[in-house]
Design a protein that fits this description.
Structural class: alpha/beta
Number of domains: 4
Radius of gyration: 28 Å
Shape: globular
Low-confidence stretches: none
CATH superfamily of the largest domain: P-loop containing nucleotide triphosphate hydrolases
Strand content: 5-15%
Strand order of the largest sheet: 3-4-2-5-6-1-7
Distance between the termini: 47 Å
CATH architecture of the largest domain: 3-Layer(aba) Sandwich
Number of helices: 30
Number of strands: 19
CATH topology of the largest domain: Rossmann fold
Largest sheet: 7 strands, parallel
Mean pLDDT: 92
């Protein structure tokens, strides 16, 4: 593997279990690129945001601090990302963020100038967001063929049963395809699968409580243990159950490996009293509701060996940079609020969890215990001991990708669309597994007919949504709605919804409702019993909803957007959901602005622009402008308004002594206020009416408007309550 990765420029596929050191292969490929071209550009793709942040921190230290090469993490904000792409040697991204940038590759030289394209976790092509991963890999191969310059692809994956198909699709030769069996690990794995013949999930979890403790005592009485559970609530319950059983063994502190007084400075940083109590006894827990600081503290205590047992919720398996001697997976089902039922963990998640039983420098072997429903035992025996098959799902969601390629003129007719599909993994797999893709046969004719039907149906749906036009039943061209959808990276059904719902009378309330109903928010999670929380929230928000269904993700989105604008205190989980909602909200609002202005509807277009500002600053337009200022409470605002100080400019015009006396803030906070004021836009508007003498009643009038911003200061918008960096 080393010889192919470091001493050649061939495309490479490496399939091996989680924890085998595949990231090192990526690092050798980067070193090879930098050796040949010190200013070379590498793009590293990983499907999970948490993994991207983890790799960024690791590589920032290795490549930027030590080798002085610029390492950047894409943000999802196009203008910012274009600048980062221009100055980065190593660009780290999720598939979606790279899709946004690379769609317009013909106009973006920096996309064409990529030398090395590394794709991690390629097996996730079979997962929920797999189609985007498939499209960007296919696009990079296509770009390479068009610019007639090789872009090296290094693909890293779990062990696959159809690795040859994946490797062939990515242009890897047989000699550059390395697919290791799942048993081949740096640290051999001893795997135990325990079945529980109880169908009711909560009862099954209760019956697993003592076996978890016994598994710890049997397989890892002194070494680190990581327990994965289905939910946030279960992390706390399991930690308490372990300690209760421990206490009944009259060894309450057996999992604590440091003096209690040494824990004190760490515990002071935590706000959860239960977590403090469990940590004092050597058991920690991690879930989505903890702050970044709390997570760091708990991870640090576990990694250092002070705390022996860690319980973590299943969704964190991708974002944790910790490993253990023993991993226990306590049940393999979680509650899916979207369909209101318990569903199985994706097999990829289970593989990731198992991969945490990996400490090459400390252990000769790792251990894993999987506790599951009795009927699932055979399934796990098969898929944890054998390589995984992986299939494409692109045929279920091609619309947005076709629309984007039509806008960039890569697809100009139906034949182009068929040709486009020949670059995909879908095309490779159709003849290999025809039943899975509903093919009638495997001949060239059958394949051609199936592709044509797929193309016809997809293009017909796009035409009905008014995203494209089809002329002479063959040629395709983008329409305004399609261009807006592609530019803002939004779903074709969303842009159709905007087109049908927005009108000349739409106000902020209507905009919030329309945006909340976007397809982008279909997967906002609804948790067990969360409907009661949302019902309470619906009583507090200013815009009441008519007959809301509190298990609907779109209703939840609306309520959380209003809660954000009202600066309401939310639980950590709801706050996390709000951040996910906000990450998409601005581009959805901007798409609304474009749809409204295309129709010539000025008032609602201005309302949408104002909503974007409201979302950024977390306030309603009726609120005092002073609410935007850092450290300003309602008390500060009242003091200011009582003195006739009502705008940012009023604050700026005050004498220093007068301002200090009025605000009564510490010096450091006054400095934050000053920084905000200096960044606040001071815009001068001037206008001129064109051809005054020929103006007639009822006729058109041309007005030339000039906006000039004084003292342009570059830098991000100061918006502490918005989760992403925003630029003016």
């Amino acid at each position: 593997v080393f010889n192919t990765v470091y001493n050649s420029d061939d495309n490479v596929f490496v399939g091996a279990p989680t924890g085998s050191g595949k990231t090192i292969c990526a690092e050798f490929a980067i070193l090879r690129m930098l050796l040949q071209n010190s200013e070379g550009r590498c793009v590293y793709i990983t499907p999970m945001e948490a993994l991207a942040e983890q790799v960024f921190m690791d590589w920032y230290e290795k490549f930027q601090e030590r080798l002085n090469k610029k390492v950047v993490l894409l943000t999802g904000e196009t203008s910012t990302d274009l600048k980062l792409l221009g100055k980065g040697n190593i660009i780290i991204s999720t598939p979606e963020k790279w899709d946004i940038l690379s769609r317009r590759w013909k106009q973006r030289k920096n996309v064409q100038n990529v030398n090395l394209f590394i794709v991690d976790e390629v097996h996730l092509i079979g997962g929920e967001n797999g189609p985007v991963l498939e499209v960007i890999c296919s696009r990079m191969r296509y770009i390479s063929s068009q610019i007639e310059r090789p872009i090296r692809i290094v693909a890293l994956s779990s062990s696959l049963s159809n690795a040859k198909d994946v490797a062939h699709w990515l242009g890897c030769s047989a000699t550059a395809t390395f697919n290791f069996h799942p048993n081949v690990r740096p640290v051999p794995l001893e795997l135990h699968i325990q079945g529980f013949n109880i169908s009711h999930t909560q009862t099954r979890l209760l019956s697993m409580a003592k076996p978890v403790y016994h598994a710890v005592m049997k397989h890892s009485p002194k070494k680190p243990v990581l327990v994965f559970v289905p939910s946030r609530k279960q992390t706390r319950l399991t930690a308490i159950n372990i300690l209760t059983t421990c206490a009944s063994d009259v060894q309450r502190h057996r999992f604590l490996h440091c003096a209690e007084k040494d824990l004190v400075p760490y515990l002071e940083k935590l706000s959860d009293p239960t977590l403090k109590e469990t940590l004092v006894n050597g058991v920690g827990y991690l879930h989505e509701g903890l702050t970044a600081m709390e997570r760091r503290v708990v991870e640090q205590l576990f990694s250092s060996g002070a705390v022996q047992v860690m319980v973590a919720s299943r969704s964190l398996c991708w974002g944790m940079n910790i490993s253990a001697h023993l991993v226990i997976i306590m049940d393999t089902q979680y509650y899916n609020g979207k369909i209101h039922a318990y569903v199985d963990y994706p097999i990829y998640d289970v593989l990731q969890m198992v991969g945490h039983a990996n400490r090459p420098l400390q252990d000769d072997e790792g251990r894993c215990v999987i506790m599951c429903q009795g009927s699932k035992k055979d399934f796990f025996k098969k898929f944890l001991y054998e390589p995984l098959p992986v299939e494409s799902h692109l045929d279920h969601c091609m619309h947005d990708h076709f629309n984007a390629e039509i806008v960039t003129k890569t697809i100009e007719n139906k034949q182009d669309a068929v040709d486009y599909l020949t670059w995909t993994f879908l095309y490779r797999r159709m003849t290999q597994n025809p039943n899975y893709y509903n093919l009638q046969g495997v001949s060239h004719r059958h394949l051609s007919d199936h592709l044509s039907e797929l193309v016809e149906q997809t293009l017909s749906d796009l035409e009905q949504s008014k995203c494209i036009s089809i002329e002479d039943e063959m040629d395709v061209a983008p329409l305004n709605l399609g261009m807006i959808a592609a530019y803002y990276y939004i779903n074709y059904t969303t842009i159709e919804l905007f087109s049908m719902s927005l009108n000349a009378k739409t106000k902020v309330r209507g905009l919030l409702e329309i945006i909340s109903n976007a397809a982008e928010y279909e997967n906002i999670p609804i948790r067990h019993h969360e409907d009661n929380l949302l019902r309470q929230l619906s009583q507090k928000v200013p815009h009441k909803l008519t007959n809301p269904k509190f298990n609907d993700p779109h209703v939840k989105t609306n309520l959380l957007l209003q809660a954000h604008l009202s600066r309401m205190q939310l639980s950590a989980e709801l706050q996390s959901d709000t951040e996910e909602i906000l990450s998409k909200a601005i581009r959805l609002i901007q798409a609304c602005v474009d749809v409204l202005s295309s129709n010539g509807w000025l008032s609602p277009a201005l309302a949408a622009m104002e909503l974007a500002q409201m979302v950024t600053q977390a306030m309603w337009s009726k609120d005092s402008y002073l609410k935007q200022l850092p450290h300003f409470t309602s008390e500060h605002i009242k003091r200011c308004t009582d003195k006739g100080v009502e705008s940012v400019f009023d604050i700026m015009e005050m004498e220093d002594e007068e301002r200090t006396a009025l605000l009564q803030l510490p010096e450091a906070q006054i400095a934050d206020v000053a920084r905000f004021c200096n960044r606040y836009p001071n815009i001068e508007l001037s206008y001129e009416v064109g051809d005054r003498d020929s103006i007639r009643s009822g006729g058109p009038v041309v007005v030339l408007v000039q906006l000039e911003r004084e003292e342009e200061v570059t830098g991000p918008v100061i918006a502490p309550l918005f989760p992403q960096v925003r630029r003016d």
